[in-house]
Amino acid sequence: MLLGDVLRGIPFLCFTFHCLRVSVSSSIIVRTSRLTFRLFYASINYYRAEARFIYPEDIMSFQLPTFTPPNFNSEQFMNSPDAKHSKVVKDGVAPCGFYLTSHLPTYYKLNGKWVLPQRSSLNCAAIIKNDTVVIKELRDLTIGEEVILAEVSDGSEGVFKSSGLFDKSVMQTAGKAVETSFTGDYNFLYELMKHEKETGGYIVWVMGPSVVFDHDTRVALSNLARAGYVNALLAGNALATHDLEGGYLNTALGQNIYTQESVPMGHYNHLDLLNEVRRAGSIKNFIAEGHVKNGFIKTITELNIPIVLAGSIRDDGPLPEVYQKVTEALTAMKAQTDKATLIICLATMLHSVSTANLASSYRIAADGSVLPVYMYTVDVTENVTNKISAARENIAVRSIVTNVQDFVVNVQNALVPAAAIK
Asked: For residue 115, which of 368, 392, 394 has the smallest C-alpha distance?
């Protein structure tokens, strides 16, 4: 019998102690014609004590939603034909009538057996390889590959797709708004991130540049990375540029990274940063030269965490690591999303929609179980989060409409021990 089985249902009391902290940073003497007195600059932080009952199963038994395969012994599936297929005759060109893939789990019948690919992706082709099915981008098709053909996915042509195989909680209902309560989404994310870290998962972050325009957010992201909650970063030239600018010149787009006050000639700062990194030859070399004092890019570079920077038509510079060819950027992004067990997208519709299209909504674990690959999309504009959810076909996606800086700090405070926060 497991310890969790013995303790299940027995609550224990958990205390959380906080305190009142007053710190004096400096003082000045003020003199008038009648009085002389001293003013102190002080910061006061109030903390509280909490006590609550926690059940062991609440902390010992986090489980991802269940997946129930179709009953392939039923008459509907037994009588279905094998999926038709046709060869590729020109690289990057699918044969006429190819089946266009979906994020929803889709089975293909080969030699009388229904097969689920290891990963899915939107608007791709399904090819037959070694008696299984692999999802492949149309541009990557090569001569001789066998591509599955179908017009419908109800099983009648050897292809079956369904939105009802996962527990219903995996499907997000549309219409999340700024007024929506997100407490449950936050709490689920905290437990999911801990689960992924403890079980060897792969957490991919997708970010827009506004994420790093705030001092506390850059600190929190670095703390999360050091704590093991960041396994890859997908972003653009701007995010890396402005984070490095913050570490190099203490500004982002020429504004002080903490006060947001514009500095003289600050509009040159990010261009000066780009010039210096290009002189050094790479981000890694520039950091090694000692120019960058702090920041998220510095932290994950020193931790050897993969960074994929996809270029755009209006990039300054760009940084040497930026992929300037779109298809190469997508291939590099997909190499990371194919490993992802959780994806967190912050304040970028462009990169988030691209990731939503690329990344699988599920994965097949080593024990054969089918698990959702959740994508969290966070933005202050509900239209953005709803569009990203739609690009994901509303499966394995959760939206939070809020300020991304507050979101990141909340995640840090929930997951990183106070003693480890720098």
From this structure: 368
**Nearest alpha-carbon partner for 361 in 66, 75, 23, 103:** 103
pLDDT digits 0-9 by tens, 366-375: 999 999 999 9
- Paired strand residues for 234: 206, 308
Yes or no: say if 67 and 165 are a contact pair by the CB < 8 Å rule: yes
120 close to 107: Cβ distance less than 8 angstroms: no
With the CA atoms of 227, 233, 235 and 237 taken in that order, what torsion angle do they form, in degrees rounded to the nearest 10?
A: 90
Terminal CA-CA length for the chain: 41
Q: 139 by DSSP, 3-state: which?
A: helix
What size, in residues, is the chain? 422
The per-residue pLDDT for range 106-139, each reduced to its tens digit, is 999 999 999 999 999 999 999 999 999 999 999 9
266 φ, ψ (degrees, to nearest 5): -65, -20
3-state class (DSSP) for residue 64: coil
Among 93, 347, 142, which residue's Cα sits nearest to residue 242?
A: 347
Element (H, E) at 160: strand 159-161
SS3 102: coil
